[in-house]
């Protein structure tokens, strides 16, 4: 009888563990069908309508830009413009000089990488000063883990562009990709890249993402947010720019001389 009770208790424990795993393991999300009406709007904005993913009311474009469907109608259709080097959006951070407070709600490694990213910007003596704060209260940018479905959708992270003169408020990072990154400077480059979007930087190779991402040439277009050539930067891709559309998580890309010219011109 004692053995039977032990076996029964063990079987019950296994059953409970299996049940807990089933409840805690999210199902792989199913991408939503993007209505033709939305694809037409995306195409009118200059994006490649063949490379749009949608989940939970959000469009994922350019690999790391999240745009709520509800905001599409607020964006003005643009035109594809000639290929140049460094680019900014129409919207930039206002009120310069200004201190940008960055709160990191992630493990220590991400905080250390953010400190490096902040130091890179601050070394340029811009009218923007970046500092990491220990509270979300009053933070201009919060860096935190992305939702669980980012991993299943293959999204490494996301940010956005300035709104109403303020930097975009949130950077989401997919820990399944970045927790195992061993090069802290590579992680800092990724964070600096997303911070670049938050203050109004477009991808350096936005006119031809195949330069850094491979595959078929793809022009991101105006995107309704502007793709303005920054004077003083050359034409043609910049091989090591921190704002290239794609890169490896381990890859360290400090600011190039062209990146520095672009940042100094804007801020």
From TrEMBL:
Record's keyword terms, sorted: Hydrolase, Metalloprotease, Protease, Signal
SUPFAM superfamilies given in the database record: Metalloproteases ('zincins'), catalytic domain
Signal sequence, renumbered to the chain: 1-24
Entry GO MF terms: metallopeptidase activity
Coiled coil: none
Protein name per the record: M57 family metalloprotease
